[in-house]
Task: structure prediction
Amino acid sequence: MSLHIPFDNSYATLPSGFFSRLDPTPVKDAQMLAWNEKLAAELGIEGTDPTVFAGSRVPDGAAPLAQLYAGHQFGSYNPQLGDGRAILLGEVVDTHGERRDIQLKGSGPTPYSRMGDGRAWLGPVLREYVVSEAMHALGIPTTRALAAVATGEPVYREQGALPGAVLTRVASSHLRVGTFQIFAHRGQIDELRTLADYAIARHHPDADGPMGLLSAVCAAQAELVAGWMSVGFIHGVMNTDNCTISGETIDYGPCAFMDAFHEGRVFSSIDQMGRYAFGNQPRIAVWNMAQLATALIQLFDDKDQAVKDATAIVHAMPQQLEDAWLHRFGAKLGLADVTADDQPLIEDLLNLMQADGADFTNTFAALHTDAARDQFTDRDAFDTWAQRWSQRGPAVDLMQRTNPRIIPRNHRIETMIEAAVSGDMVPFERLMSALATPYDVHSDFDDLRRPPTQAEIVPATFCGT
Ligand code: AMP
Ligand code: MG
Result:
């Protein structure tokens, strides 16, 4: 099959301590399950070939490598992580002039695999495909999905033997807070400086030195997390190795969009303390930026001054988060001129929603209609709130642009995966079409907007690796 990828690799030219060069591990029988035609065109890719996206054939111009990084996982520092089941094929400069990574995930073991098999099974591959593309359609920065390929090989997990798959992930880069941490913790200051220069050039070219980089990443992460909150998204595993320098969402493991609203909602089966609960995400984003600050401080001779400067930048982030949150939720209520005075109005609605277990997406999507009160059991309380709100003169068109009608609901993802495992990709295709235009009214997909019944509720999501 003919395939041309216009590779233009930069990471592979960094010092050898940044990565290990190795090829993906070939698989038995590569079958294309999903191919993102539009994204391929944007990347300048011509043709396709399942064997390449399964890792069985290395395409011309690729410089395959596994990246090195570390990170705090649930608050504890792990000094050595790295791509344990991912391989960066290389980079392309897309039709907008942006540099993008093309990475295979589930493509076999690497020197960083530890006890892992380097593989992924179909479930998490399709979950990431659907949820990352939905996130993009919602207008929130994210890595993308280019391809999902079945390997024809089993993968062994707790549930038993499962069908193996490889995801091709596209990212504006895979630089993480953890990439900085590994060099800082090891005292490799030259490498740390090279990395900071590389990150500035690639993502934040206007940033003035490492402190400028820190400010830019804080701003990008504040916007990102406010974006997640505005659509009821719970990332689930906001470890510093899953926190990008670009400000894109990365690592769709145990993530989920909420159905019934609750600030304390947790999905991830491995998050027993609720560290990454919905309402905790802003605080964790700040905590992660404090770790980036700690790493970048190592670049300065005058440590006292650097600590002062970095502290001021990180301490400004809660206000940035609050502003971004206010802007997002103000728009959801149709308030283009939202001010801090509107905060109680927004919070009172969320409190009513939480008390009544109202569906997050459907409540906001219906707010400008008479159907809104059906989401509440205490309708008098809602009516009183709605009275206050209407006095602010909400703009319906703004609400329609900012309140998605459809999100990838967990129970739908689960049934889509079950179907795919038995060879039926129709539910996947249908989810993908519905989620491509989340702000539109499409009655064909009304069933996908329905919250789960008691029996359909998915209690937890798994790292699913
Ligand atoms: P993640 O939960 O995907 O962020 O992964 C955390 C770390 O574990 C990363 O270093 C991964 O590369 C590694 N990892 C996860 N699953 C596997 C696997 N099946 N084989 C090897 N390494 C893995
Ligand atoms: Mg990760």
User: Anything to note?
Assistant: Residues 241-242, 251 surround magnesium ion (ligand 2) (CB under 6 Å). The first strand starts at residue 3 and ends at 4. The chain has 16 helices and 14 strands. The mean pLDDT is 97.
